[in-house]
Amino acid sequence: MAEIHKNYIGGAWVAGADASDNTNPAKPAEIIGTYAMASAADADKAVAAARQALPEWSNTTPQQRHDLLDSVGNQILGRADEIGKTLAREEGKTLPEAIGETMRAGQVFKFFAGEALRQSGEFIPSVRPNIDIEVSREPVGVVGLITPWNFPIAIPAWKMAPALAWGNCVVLKPASLTPASAHVLVEILDACGCPKGAVNLIMGSGGVLGEAMLANADIDAFSFTGSVATGRHIAAACAAMQTKLQLEMGGKNPLVVMDDADLDIAVAAAVNGAFFSTGQRCTASSRLIVHAPIYDAFVEATRKTIKALKVGNPLDAETQIGPVISPEQLQSNLAYLDIAKKEGIEVIGGAALDHADKGYFQNPGLMLDTKNQMRINREEIFGPLASVIKVGDFDEAVAVANDTEFGLSAGICTKSLSHARQFRKQAQAGMVMVNLPTAGVDYHVAFGGRKGSSFGPREQGRYAAEFYTTLKTSYIQA
Ligand code: NAD
Predict the structure, then answer these.
(1) Average per-residue pLDDT in the chain?
(2) 326 φ/ψ angles, rounded to the nearest 5 degrees
(3) How far, in Å, CA of 238 to CA of 218, rounded?
(4) What is the pLDDT of residues 248-289, one digit of tens each?
(5) DSSP-derived secondary structure letter, 374
C-alpha cells in the first residue's frame, strides 16, 4: 500500500479520516503521493495543540526564533531543486518557476529570521509628570493560515515565517490540490527542531477544515489567500467573532502600454505578466490597455511572441507554459473564451491542446479589441488568457485601468517620466509597476492590494508586523 503523507498535529504525524491522491496536472494518471485528509475534529486538535504551545513559543528569545527560521531557510534553499521538482509536478508551473518559488520560500524564512532579531518598541515620555510610556508589540496568538494552490510553498512560507518570528503558533490548511509542497515545508520545520505544536498542518477540504477553523474561537487571527468568494465568506465569519483578519484575493490587473513605450519591453512585460505560470497568478496582467497609435504594432508583436511559446510538461527544459491546474479550471477558461466569441471578439490562440499524457494544457490566448465593460474584463479568469483594450489617450488609459472592482497590481509601459509619475499617483492598486510585468514582486517589501483584492494589513517585509503582532501601551510611574 502506498505511503500516506500525514497531518502534523502537536509535533506528531497523524493519519486523517481519509486520504486522497495528489496527481500531476501535466499527466493526470501520475500520482505524486497520497495525502491524509484531516477531519473537523483533527482541525480542533491542531488548534488546541497550537494554543498549548503558545506560552512557551511566545516566550522564546529572538535568538531562538531567529535560529529556527534561519535553519529552515537554509534547508529549503539547499533542497530547492528537489522541492521545486515536486512543486512543478503538483502545481504545473515550469521547473525554473517552481525552483524559483522554492528559493523564494527559503529567502522569506531567512528574511524573517532577521526580523525576529530586529523587533523593537517605543519609549515615550508621558504628558504627565514622572510617568513613562512603553509601546511594545506582542504576538497575536494562534493564527489560522488558509492558502491557495497557485504558490503552494511561497504563500505558506510568507505567512508562517512572520507568524513564528513574532512568537505566534500556527495551524496551516493548504489547498487540497497541492498538499505536497506544504507537507515538505512542515517536514523541514520538524527536522529543524520546531517545538511541538508551534506549527500544525491539516490537509483536506476547505469546506470541512476551513469551516471547522472558522468555528473555533481559539483562533485569534486568520490570514487567507484565495478567491474573492471564499475570502468574503471568511470575512463574514471573522466579523461575527471579532477575529483579526488579513485577506489576499483576486485581481484583474491592468497593464497600460502608451505609444511612447519601448515596444520590446512592453511586449515582454505583457507576455510574461499575462501568460507565465499559465496565467495563474493573482498579479497576472489580464487587461492589456493599449494606446491607439501603438495598438496594431503591439498586437502583431504579441501575437508572434505567444505563437512561439512552448506549452508542455513543466519538467521539459524547453517548456515555457505548463498545464492549467485542473480539468474544472480548464473548462472555466474555455467557457470565458466562448463568452468572448459570443460577444464578437476575435481570439488569437487559447485552444485546449490534445496531449499524449492527457494533461490539462491550453495555448495562451489573446482576446482582441475588447471593451472594459465586457464580462471577460470584469471577472478574474485565472488562466493563460488576456484581453486587449484600445484607448485614445493617457487619461482614458488610467480611467479604464481603475474601472474594476479589484486593485492588486497595475503597470504602465512608457518612456515618459511624466506618464510614469502620473500613473504611479493615480493607479488605484496596492502595487504599481513601471516598464515591468504586473506580476513578479520582492519578498522584503509590502505585498497586497486595494478594493476587492485585499482586506486588512499588508503581507511581507517588516509591514507584516501589523498583522502578526498586537500593540500594548504600558504606563509606568516611577
Ligand atoms: P479558493 O478560495 O478556492 O481556496 C483557497 C483556500 O481556501 C483553499 O485552501 C481552500 O481549501 C480554502 N477554502 C475553500 N472553502 C473554504 C471555506 N468555506 N472556509 C475556509 N476555507 C475554505 O482559491 P484557490 O482556487 O485555491 O486560489 C485561486 C485564487 O487565489 C485566485 O482568485 C487568486 O487570485 C487568489 N490568489 C491571490 C493572491 C494574493 O496574494 N492576492 C495570491 C495567490 C492567489
Answers:
(1) 97
(2) -155, 165
(3) 12
(4) 999 999 999 999 999 999 999 999 999 999 999 999 999 999
(5) S
> Ligand 1 centroid to 147 CA: how many Å?
6
Amino acid at 209: L
Q: Is 235 in the pocket of ligand 1 (CB under 6 A)?
A: no
192 is catalytic: no
Question: What's the CA gap between 202 and 44, in Å, rounded?
Answer: 10
C-alpha closest to that of 440 among 305, 162, 253, 299: 253
CA distance 241 to 159: 22
Cell of 347: 481570439
Please give the share of the chain, as a percent, with pLDDT higher than 90.
Answer: 99
Q: CA-CA distances (angstroms) from residue 287 to 325, 347, 366, 428?
A: 21, 14, 10, 15
Domains and CATH numbers, the chain: 4-249+453-477 (3.40.605.10), 253-434 (3.40.309.10)
Alpha carbon distances (Å) from 231 to 56, 164, 444? 31, 23, 25
**Among 172, 202, 238, 282, residue to substitute to test ligand 1 (most atoms within 8 Å of Cβ):** 282
Q: Please enumerate, as own/partner, the contacts of 456-462 that have beta carbons within 8 Å and a separation of 24 or more.
A: 456/244, 456/245, 456/246, 456/247, 457/246, 458/430, 459/158, 459/159, 459/162, 459/223, 459/246, 459/248, 460/108, 460/158, 460/162, 461/111, 462/115, 462/118
